Structure formats: structure tokens, C-alpha cells
Amino acid sequence: MLHLSTTAEQRLVDRLGRVHSNLRISVTDRCNIRCFYCMPEEVVFRPRGEILTFEEIERFVRVAATLGVKKLRLTGGEPLVRKDLPGLVKRLAAIPGIEDLALTTNGLLLAEQAEALKKAGLHRVNVSLDTLSEDTFQQISRRSGLQQVLDGIFAAQQAGFENLRLNAIAIRGLTENEIVPLAKFANRHALQLRFIEFMPLDADGNWKQEDTLTGAVIRQLLEDEFGPLQLADRPDPSQPALDYRFANGSGGIGFINPVSEPFCESCNRLRLTAEGQIRNCLFSITEWDARKVLRGNGSDDSLRQLIRDCVAAKKPAHGIGEEDFEKPARAMYEIGG
Ligand code: SF4
Fold first, then answer.
1. Mutate to test the pocket of ligand 1, among 273, 318, 320, 325 (most ligand atoms within 8 A of CB)
2. Among 10, 26, 42, 206, which lies 20 to 30 A Cα-Cα from 93?
3. Which atom of ligand 1 is nearest to the CA of 315?
4. Distance of CA 145 from the midpoint of ligand 1 (Å)
């Protein structure tokens, strides 16, 4: 890990003083399943020529690192469907200033790629797991594959990924019965399970506030089962999750409550879409075209200025539930979560 000192002037600070050091990179809009809270059943993916190459992603990150970006998360669609992802991991892990490199995956291809990703320099893995029932898995993802996901989780632990995290989307009327079994699974296998509230980024636009199973309701269900949860340390004040420990110390539970308890005041995240648009928020309506600079012989300085402009325009919060809230035109699979 090569150190890169960044002066205060160089850092990406917005109007609220939030320092942006965390970049989420969508490496593809493609996926091998069709979760209804993320993408439509029938989908037309972007032509490959529109998607950033590994060289372009590497250049963008190299420039962003000079502005204080230290943490990267690879997302999609499903990042593991992108050919030779360990090759990209190797490039990004070698960039001066990058201190943390993580991946969010649906786990279906993880068993076959875990070793190579670890060797390439990946630090952390989050696996999406909303249920332990094959029927509910198919109801949500409109495909089969639960056993592959479980195999992927164990293969990643085998490959040496510690503190493996599970991301579970909580949806009222569908996943209430999954909460305690998932928690017991996490406890049994020393996994960090995080429940994420269902957000208005589904492709079909069916999201309603009342469909969101809030963190408070989930926590009550868990405390009814396990007794009081103990608050865990919070090493990163900008992390969206509130984490708790199980009494027996094996694994943990976390809550990411963007709808009922927004955490925008400490947000440090930027996003790069698969086709090279910079977003200053998951719910931003405006984007900044980095691909135009990358493919238009633009200089590193003009790329830096573009990133700065994006941060400078960041709104205080997502505004879900407010009168003027505007749902982004993009669905989750086109942003990368
Ligand atoms: S909704 Fe936007 S501002 Fe709020 S935490 Fe998420 S990315 Fe940050």
C-alpha cells in the first residue's frame, strides 16, 4: 500500500464540510440475476463500448487518489460477471493512496473467484443475502442460485477474507421471517450481517414508504429473540451502518437505515457509474461526464476539476419523503448501490 499525502486544499470538501474519501465504482450494469428491488425482469444492457475500460477506471482512480480518495468499493450490476475482475483489483490495489479495496457481490460467482481476488489484493467482501429460503430467493431474484451464494460465502472465508459482511435488504411483507434465521446463520458462521432498508431505486418504480421494514422494527425482532444487542465500535464515523455484537461475540448485526434514519450529514461517498458518470449521491439527479474527459484527451487537471465540481454541487441529503423528492432516472443496477 503506497502512501500519498494529500493537503487540506486538495481534499474533496463540500459545502457542508463533508470530506469525500470513499469512491464506489460500478464496473458493469450487467448481472446474472434480476432482483426486483434493483432491476427489471427484461433489461437492455449498455453496449460494451460505452463501459469504461480497466485502463480508464485505473486512470480515474489515480487522479481521484490525488484528491484524497482512499477507499474503493467495486460494485455493478454484478461485478464478478466482468471478465478478469482480479486484473482490475490488482491495478487498483497498486495505486498510491488507496488504503482499502472492497467488493459487493451477489455471491453466485464468488466460489470460483475468491482465491484470485484475494491474491490480487482485495481486502474486503460484502455478499448480498436476503434470505435462506430458495423459494424466497427466487421470489426476490427471479432466478435460482441460493446454494451457489452460500458456497461463495464459505469459499471467501476459506480464501482468508475476514469479517465477511452480508447485506440483507429488508422488505415488509416478504422478509420478516428471514430476519432471525439470517441472524442465527451469521452468528453461527462469524459473519457481519447488515440489514439495509428498501430504498426507492427499484427499476419498476413500485417502491412505497410503507414497504420499508425499518431498522428499529428489525432490531426489536432480534432483541425479542437474542436479548439486548451490544453496540459495537464505530471505527469509521462516516460508515452508514450502526453495528452491534452478539452476546457470544461471534459475528455481528448492523443496520443501514437510509429511509428512517438518514446518515447524509456524515456522507463521504462518491460514485462512478459503469459508463463513466460521476454521481455525488446515490439519489443525485445530475451527473458529471468523466468518460468525455477520459476519451477526449482531457488532462488529469480537467478530471480533477470535474470531480471537484461534482462535490461542490452535492445536496445536504437524499430528501426521500420530502415533497420535492425526485426519484433518479437510474435504477440501482445502473448506479451500483
Ligand atoms: S443518500 Fe446520498 S448523501 Fe445520503 S448518505 Fe447516501 S449517498 Fe450520501
1. 318
2. 10
3. 3
4. 31
The minimum-distance atom of ligand 1 relative to the CA of 314 is: 3
pTM of the model: 0.95
What does the domain layout of the chain look like in residue ranges? 18-335
The answer to whether 128 touches 107, Cβ cutoff 8 Å, is: yes
Cβ atoms within 10 A of the Cβ of 326, count?
Answer: 10
d(CA 250, ligand 1 centre) in Å: 30
Q: Are the C-beta atoms of residues 139 and 133 closer than 8 Å to each other?
A: no
User: Coil, strand, or helix at residue 254?
Assistant: strand
DSSP code at position 94? T
Distance CA 44, CA 282 (A): 21
pLDDT in tens, 242-292: 999 887 888 899 999 999 999 999 999 999 999 999 999 999 999 999 999
Does domain 18-335 correspond to CATH entry 3.40.50.150?
no
Locate the ligand 1 atom nearest the alpha carbon of residue 266 and give its number. Answer: 5
Radius of gyration (Cα) for the chain, nearest Å?
19
At 101 the three-state DSSP class reads strand
Q: Which residue lies with its CA nearest to atom 4 of ligand 1?
A: 264
The size of the chain, in residues, is 337
The DSSP letter of residue 235 is S
Three-state DSSP class for residue 105: strand
- DSSP alpha helix (H) spans, the chain: 54-65, 85-93, 110-120, 134-141, 146-158, 179-188, 215-226, 290-295, 300-312
